[in-house]
Amino acid sequence: MRAGQESWEFRGSLGFPTHAALYVRDALGLDTSADDVAPPALAADVPDRSDRLAPVDRSGAAAAWLGVWHALVDRPDSPFVALESLRRAPFVAAVWDEAVLWSNAARRGAASADPTGPIRWDIVQAVAAGVARDLGVGLERMRGGAEFVLVCGDWWRVARPGLVVASVQAASDPASATALLRAAFVSALEG
């Protein structure tokens, strides 16, 4: 927006903590499909390291991973604290170094200089203005964000008020981007 005009705010991130955690989950073959906030599989070839985790430890590891995932998306002020608890989990040691390398490389390849991430600025502007108009609030009250993840499919969820976790594919599709932006802005107002 221009100086002196009402403004909205939307920040997108392609974070290291979320991608390192997703790599651990996918490499170890942890089943988190029953959790609505856990994203689908990474949209990359992740080596199968499931043999590094004893079958008897699998459900406990999946539950621990989900606890970390929820901490990552529920507490944006301390993602590295949550990630550190994952790194220290015994089942992670076998894949941690790979997770760090993969996450850094994948994010570098997908990084955007635009603070709204892979969503086009004009779409963010239109949705912010539309939500403000529909709800009868000032444009300056439109605040939201997204954690973009390199996962399969057109997928997104509201993680907490004002924040969605979304696949890059969903963010790149104008219809999905509109829906997830609306959800981020509205949930922030209701939060």
Would you write up a description of this structure?
The protein has two domains: 16-108, no CATH class; 113-190, no CATH class. The protein is elongated and about 55 Å long. It contains seven helices and four strands, in the order βαααααβββαα. The chain has helices at residues 16-28, 58-74, 79-87, 96-110, 121-135, 168-172, 174-190; strands spanning 9-13, 143-149, 156-160, 163-167. The two termini are 25 Å apart. The chain is an alpha/beta fold and 191 residues long. The chain has a four-stranded mixed beta sheet with strand order 1-2-4-3.
Topology at a glance:
Blueprint: E1 9-13, H1 16-28, H2 58-74, H3 79-87, H4 96-110, H5 121-135, E2 143-149, E3 156-160, E4 163-167, H6 168-172, H7 174-190
Parallel strand pairs: 1-2, 2-4
Antiparallel strand pairs: 3-4
Helix pairs in contact: 1-2, 1-3, 1-4, 2-3, 5-7
Structure summary, number of beta strands: 4
The fraction of residues assigned to DSSP E strands is 5-15%
Q: Output the number of helix runs.
A: 7
Order of helices and strands: EHHHHHEEEHH
Shape: elongated
Percentage of helical residues? 40-55%
Poorly predicted regions are: none
Distance between the termini: 25 Å
For the biggest β-sheet, the strand order reads 1-2-4-3
Tally of domains: 2
Mean pLDDT over all positions: 90
In short:
Helices cover 48% and strands 12% of the residues.
Q: Which descriptors would you attach to this protein?
A:
4-stranded mixed beta sheet, elongated, alpha/beta, 2 domains, 191 residues
